[in-house]
Write a structure and sequence with these properties.
The chain is 42% helix and 15% strand. By secondary structure, the protein is of the alpha/beta class. It has a single domain (6-230), classed as Rossmann fold (3-Layer(aba) Sandwich), CATH 3.40.50.720. A 7-stranded parallel β-sheet has the order 3-2-1-4-5-6-7, sandwiched between helices. Helix 1 (15-26) links the parallel strand 1 and strand 2. The protein is globular and about 55 Å long. The structure holds NADP nicotinamide-adenine-dinucleotide phosphate (NAP). NADP nicotinamide-adenine-dinucleotide phosphate binds at residues 10-17, 35-37, 40, 55-58, 79-82, 103-104, 107, 130, 132, 175, 177-178, 180-182, 185.
Length: 247
């Protein structure tokens, strides 16, 4: 077995998770990646030199099967999740809310709960939860997603209290607009609508966020980066965005 530190990244078949996994491999970690689409995940793993394992964070037995296959863990990056829909609360779709809470909130809890013993045993564990600016502010049409990400933030802060005295750091990364498949998923595969949030502005890239993750996990072991809020220069709040006029 290699003596490299081991990182686990959920939601690594796309976007921030893929970039985080690539940057962690480049920084000397042995990386295990999980997501539901095993075909895509395997391509990512082959391209970057990671190990792909099927994972559905909404399914407790899938989480346990995944975690049993990981021999040890130093870093856990919880990136699996996202938003579904843009309905007001008056028109809320219960199934979408349930899925958002299940993947973003309960999924993070399930991964943390399953891997805590291995992180503690490592002597230097680190949990990195990808929340969002939606965890610190709200916007019309974002009710289900902002509620879920506020819960991720609360879960993350609670963990930091409960793990005090143990060798496990806890970091929240809260990005603004990042151009990934996030909007495509949110708008049910509608590619035209998915482009709109990024029109006339320069969003963050998944690599921008991945660099912040790697920076946080490579600080000396006694340093805990609590929260990093990372926005595009063009974005002041979830709804206040500077857009260049169309030519
Ligand atoms: P993305 O490109 O859509 O990636 C989402 C990833 O989550 C995919 O790999 C997807 O893989 C995985 N996933 C979704 N449900 C899952 C489940 N039940 N079990 C396992 N994996 C699951 O979006 P992204 O922007 O990288 O999003 C990553 C995280 O960043 C999310 O938590 C999102 O809320 C957060 N975030 C995104 C932005 C943004 O603007 N993009 C901003 C702030 C925060 P499979 O479909 O293959 O399972």
């Amino acid at each position: 077995m290699s003596n490299k530190p081991i990182a686990v990244v959920t939601g690594a078949s796309s976007g921030i998770g893929t970039a985080a996994a690539a940057h962690l491999v480049a920084s000397g970690y042995q990386v295990y990646i999980g997501a539901r689409r095993l075909d895509r995940l395997s391509k990512v793993a082959d391209a970057i030199g990671a190990t792909a394992l099927e994972l559905d964070v909404t399914d407790a037995s899938s989480v346990l099967a995944f975690c049993e296959k990981v021999p040890a863990v130093n870093v856990l990056v919880n990136s699996a999740g996202g938003a579904l829909g843009f309905e007001t609360i008056a028109d809320a779709d219960e199934e979408k809310w349930r899925t958002m809470f299940d993947s973003n909130v309960l999924g993070t809890m399930r991964m943390v709960r399953a891997l805590l013993p291995k992180m503690e045993a490592s002597g230097a564990g680190h949990i990195v939860n990808i929340s969002s600016i939606a965890g610190i502010e709200v916007y019309p049409g974002g009710g289900g997603y902002t509620a879920a990400k506020h819960a991720v933030r609360a879960l993350t802060e609670t963990l930091r209290l409960e793990l005090l005295g143990k060798p496990i750091r806890v970091t929240e990364i809260a990005p603004g607009l990042v151009e990934t498949e996030f909007s495509l998923v949110r708008f049910g595969g509608d590619a035209e609508r998915a482009k709109k949030p990024y029109e006339g502005m320069t969003p963050l890239t998944a690599d921008d966020v991945a660099e912040a993750i790697v920076w946080a996990v490579t600080r000396p072991a006694h340093v805990n980066i609590d929260t990093m809020v990372i926005r595009p220069l063009d974005q002041a709040t979830a709804t206040l965005i500077h857009r260049k006029p169309n030519n």
